Amino acid sequence: MNNVLAYKTTKDIIHGSEYKNIEREARKSHNRIASHTKRNPYIKSKYFKNEKIFLNYFWNVLHQRNWQDRKRRLIYYDCAIDLLRNTTLASYTSQDPDDPNLLQHEFYGITENGREFVVHVREDKRNDRKSFMSVFPPRQKK
Hints:
Layout: E1 7-8, H1 19-34, E2 42-45, E3 51-54, H2 56-62, H3 67-74, H4 77-86, E4 92-95, E5 102-110, E6 116-124, E7 129-136
Parallel strand pairs: 1-5, 3-7
Antiparallel strand pairs: 2-3, 4-5, 5-6, 6-7
């Protein structure tokens, strides 16, 4: 991540040692966003020219993971939302090898306290729908 531009968020990770406490805080943030709409919760992104990024797909993907991996990802939830709303830095974009109609955008960020993270957004080219897929810390270099 050293040679890639990373967005510096104004948020820090969600602190806590137990998964249920971290999930509770992330759900509070999600519910604040969801309370602004009657249908699918979304945020508007400066990078995508104020287009909507839907959030429900993240929770579906998250619950396919084990609880340790969920905790590792959820601590960055607030940071990921801040990045998706405010970044104008270029993303690394790739096409899904299995489905030519899907693009995956990869954004890099740094928390308020200097921790790095990666955010994935999936874009369906057929209907131009963007979905927040995942957030996680970058892989450690060996």
